[in-house]
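Problem 3 from the worked examples.
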Amino acid sequence: MYVPQSNSTTEGQATVEAGGRCWSWNLSFTIFSSFHELQLLDLSSNAACFQDFDGLQRLTKLRYLNLSENSLIGNNILESLGKLASLEVINFHSSSISGALQDSAFRNLKKLRELHLGSNQLNGSIPPSLFELPRLEYLDLSGNLLQGHIPITSSILPLSLQTLKLSSNNLNGTFYFFWLRNCTMLKKIDLSKNTDLAIDVNFSGRVPKFQLRALILSGCNLDNSIITGPNFLGTQRHLQILDLSNNNLAGSLPNWIFTNEANLVYLDLANNSLVGSVNLMWQYQSNLQMVNISKNRFVGQLPTNISSVFPNLTVLDASYNSISRYLQPSLCNISRLAYMDLSNNKLTGEVPPCLFTNCSELKILKLSNNNLGGLILGGASNLSFISSIYLASNNFEGALPNNLSGDLEIMDLHDNKLSGELDASFWNLSKLQVLSVASNSLTGEVYPAICKLTGLQVLDMSANKFAGSLPNCTRKLTLDFLNMSSNTLSGFPSSFFNSSFVTVLDLRYNQFKGSLDWIQYLSQIKLLMLGGNMSEGQISPKLCHLQYLNVIELSHNRLSDIDDPSFMYNGRYDLQGFTFSTKGKLYTYGRSFFNMMFGIDLSANMLSGEIPWEIGNLSHVKSLNLSNNFLTGRIPTTFANMTDIESLDLSHNHLSGPIPWQLTQLWSLEVFSVAYNKLSGCIPNSGQFGSFGAESYLGNANLHSLSQGSRCSAVPSSVEEGDVEDEEASEDPILYIISAASFVLAFWATVAFTCCHSLGQHLILRL
């Protein structure tokens, strides 16, 4: 940007505009101090850093100031503007402003019409002086950290107010719409995402003088009065945007929403508890473009003439309801439809083939979790327009066409009844990033043509009947997630993973043999699951070079030893609050899982010798399963250093000696099993050990508790590292029974696909 220096020309300059240019440098407003006639200053969207605002105070004729999408360091800029009585528009949206708003900063701005302060880090309360500005038309304080009540009364509110945006703050108290009754110019109100703010929409029988264009009250804990009985919304004939989502509203759809007089363009009622038939909705709405009624309890069916009812619809989301019967072919006649989500309903029948081929604007189609059937993709092979297809968990049949083409980026077909071979030799899907055909009945080889899909990042072919070897891909794979588990695959070339980007690899329950030396090529791997194969030999110390590895599962193989326990160190592991329990409850795991957890499953192998004491240095490990091996010696006391561990399974080995009393310091431990070893001494009963059932200790003849009449000595004051006490503290009777023998394996088996690819669905898991 060129900033003119002070001279006779610049002193008379009225406008300086540099919006949209990229500077990425620091700037002081003193360079504008000689621009005495300056009225408009636009430096928006420059990623510039401003930190000296004293020069602004000399721009006494400034009417328009736009510094949005920059970095305004410090919190004194608003105070610097207090003397600029000529200001009419201030736009500091997304400018990293922090601190509290001072009441004195706005008292002199009597000409101010617009104040844009959204998407910053402002805190404290809203100053009352903002609502005393007589000409204020537009006020945006959304996306900040403001708290307290909204300082409005009907006596001071500016009658010129048109837009009020206070969303995404921490406001509380009660907002009375009655305060707004005299604001004849009011067009838009957005109070969404203030969960502690009560909203009162009662006008006591009066009709407000305004006609809103937009009302956004998402996530405001609204009561049912907003949709039941007479209220002012029924009088808003010009309403175009109505968002009442995420409020747990109950009851039926209000009649006033769908009337011949309605001008709605955008309707969002998602994530409530609304009931009744969607048939009430099917009234002609020429303006309606977006409808979201997802996550409610609606029943009914789509009308046969839906294209006539909503001719200009672009978005239809009715997912997570109980809508039944058939998909109507007239959906294909909605010429502007771009997004349709009818997943998680009770739809039956076949999908009209025209949805795959004739809808030129349709980009995303979601029909998963219904009872739909027929030939997969309606027999279509040329998908010219659609970019994302979700047809999972239905009853689609047949084989995938050999000549698929189009601009597909995501194709999720898992859990159907697909059969035949998957041969991509003639596919023309250069943009395909995600392909899931898991849990079908596909057969044959994994053909080399799959390597032609060079943009593929997620590939899930698990739970089918594929056999043979993985192909020898000569091209560099871009895969981030690969799941080939639960097939009968038997081998792959070592070059398959050369220079691999894969971060999640699941090859469990196949017939792979040989050593695991090829693992060293997985330089980016975070989760590695190879259980249930026939791998043999030692666990190579080369694993220690895999610096991103968070989870390794090698159970049910023929591995014989650990060459070097140092492979279990993970310097990059970072715990950020992931929590789970293991006592029969429901748990949700999101996509950020791999930044939060570290687990090891080496169960059901041929490991022998003593457990390396170094394993205890894995202070952030959540799950460790060494069960069903041939391990001997004592349980390392260093296990007490695994302070975050929640599941520890050492059962079915040949371990001896006592249970270290130090393990009672593991306050997060919820699953514990040392069953079927050769342990002796007392069973601890303090800490979490008071909740472990008898099944945790079965098959250890010399283990006993206080109830058996034995006496245990007190815990010594100090213990040498690596030493274990021969006598343990006494124990009360065990109260609960749990079984941990297969917890870790079951956990990883279920979580792998859901947590790591761009289909991105959360998982509900019962343990």
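Problem 4, a separate protein:
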Amino acid sequence: MPASSTLKIRRRTPKSCLNCRRRKLKCDRQHPCSRCKERSERCVYAEGSEIEDGSPEANDQLQRTVTREAVNSATNVNKKPPEVFEITQKKFEFYGWKTFLELIGRKKQDHKTANQIYLMGRNIRLSVALPEDILSLFPPYFVSKALVQRFLDTTNELFPIFYRSEIENFLMSIQAFGLDSISSDGILLLLCIIGHVLEVTDPPLEAKEDFASVDCNPVDLSDLIRKKLDEIFFSFDNCQGSVGNLTRVQYCIVQALYNLQKQIKGFNVALCHCINLSTRVSPIYQLDTVANEVNTDLWLTICEIDAMEHIFKSKNSWVQRDVFGRLQPRRDFFSDEKTFQYHSLLGKLLNCGLDIQKAVHTLTIQEYLQKLDEFDVNLSLILTSIESLFFGVNDTANTCRYDFLRLIFWTIRKNLYQCFLTVEHDNLPELNQIFEKLTIACLQACRIATGSSESFIRFDLLRIASLESITCLLIISFCQERGFKLPDNCIEVVYDVKHLNSIVDKEDHTSEGFEFVFDFILSTLESYPSKPPDMESEHFLEDPLRVFSDLFSIQSHFFFPH
């Protein structure tokens, strides 16, 4: 008997067009659908009255497809399709900014031409009307030049935010023709730099003398500049075309850098603004097919700051690690070979650090133990490159780069092993070796921070180094509580870090809190009762760990032992 007489064929009306069904994609059921329209293909539906293409070929294709599906549905009712089985065995892809932009791009095909015109002009700075009193915020020319030069020679060497040639041209125009000769963007950029230097660094001698002669406090002037710039930049929210201005992106990067250097508690909100604005101004991931790749170096700086927030402070990163992993510095981003080498090594370090953090939160303990050697080897190879390229350098900038790369290396090495503090020691294989490597990493980070303090002061990295050193000291005390015998010189390291911490300017209640943390660490290492300083806050005496967690606001991120 023929199969057609025994099988009851159910002619199900499919909802998707034939092309989407064949590719196993979701169809929007338009006529034609958006996917067929995008690929310039004929859109054919299995609905007699709604077939977009009525050609004989399309009808034949439709009939063959419907018949095949009917037979398959009758003979394989209880059989699970192999495609479904394969999908269930896969893992979700790690979504990032690039993936989201690709999805968004599919919904904006109608605006493709307008977007292309906008992207071609994304590097053009926009002129805006400025308040009349903004020029009064500028110090005398020789002071402004000294402050700007200090930033270009120090901070901008580690975190490229401003283009040196552009800033120097602004200064030359001011010297020759006055402040009225430069554009509004030039005014905003220079004030942004001046305000940051006055707020973060120790001003040059000529600036100190001038401020003293006119009885002006540099910090007060910095506050005035920041408030005025905030008022100007954030008034652009309702101005069409000004929201994504490159100048505003650079201003937000400076604020994000300040938060990285100075902020202890809370999230780096300015960094979130950077990422939000960068999606409107510059390409946020590097593609070889993009003809106009301007400002991609700024996105690299944003990614570096974001990764440092994650590695140094255990804060959730705004930029997904897969995006940062694809973004590599290019030689034409930088003016010299050493700067390019620094950012290449920095990118490898940060990418490895982000991989470690992801592994900690996604792998089991057994799986993580199996990955330890791989992470350790990768870090060792990067350290070898750092030593071969930067050991023995003479200039100030490269010396600081060398010290900072080593500090990041030992911080990531510490992050690699610190998670084992949360595991019961009876369940850990090779416990002594793990705690030995963790202790060595912590001590090395502390020694680099204290031994390179002058370099870190000049390049505004002292607070980062100080906070990381305190974290390492607390971890060392935890290792001792777990039964690991510490080296004899640990007490000396604690006092060195305590002296380093005394150099850093403190805000609010953090000074007394840090003093108690040091007292707690010393009492743990020296095995004698603590003698905390007199304080009004009673909880400082009751719970030392609460002091530390309150200062850093990291209860949900930092690895405390059970």
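Solution to problem 4. The chain has three domains: 3-76, 132-323, 368-552. The chain has a mean pLDDT of 74.
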